[in-house]
Amino acid sequence: MILRHVRPANKRPAKKSKSDATASTGGSSASAQFGELMEQELRLKREAAERAFEAQAEKDRTLMRLEELRFLATSTKDLDEDDAYWIKKQKKLIKNKMKNDLGDEDDEDEDE
Q1: At 18, which helix (H) or strand (E)?
Q2: Which residues contact 7 (CB under 8 A, 6 or more apart)?
Q3: Which end of the chain has the lower number of beta carbons within 10 A, N or C?
């Protein structure tokens, strides 16, 4: 046997009061504000991640420059001709790269 709830014919569902309508409207406003806050938080997190990435990239470039400078200080006087040849060749590549990098920086200095 299935029981069904039957509403008496003379009873109507209660109408929403003004305070109920205001509460539902306020809820959507709060929801919009929450959405805006979440969007702002995500934007700030993304910007922080981008800054961290750039800082790490700059650190990596600095470490590479230091390694190149250290390599340039490598002496070839006690090496055989073949090893000295390859080290001198690598030193030349590093020097050319540094000249190009410094050339770019000199261009930036002229703008100031």
Answers
A1: helix 18-72
A2: none
A3: N
Q: Which of 33, 36, 56 is nearest to 44 (CA)?
A: 36
Give the Cα separation of 87 and 91 in Å (integer).
6
Q: How far is CA 102 from CA 4, 61, 74, 75, in A?
A: 86, 14, 22, 24
By residue count, the chain amounts to 112
**Mind giving me the DSSP string for 26-66?**
HHHHHHHHHHHHHHHHHHHHHHHHHHHHHHHHHHHHHHHHH
Report residue 1 as tokens.
């046997």
pLDDT tens-digit series, residues 13-24:
666 555 555 555
Q: What pTM did the predictor assign?
A: 0.52
List, as one string, the DSSP characters of 78-90.
TS-HHHHHHHHHH
Are the beta carbons of 88 and 71 closer than 8 angstroms?
no
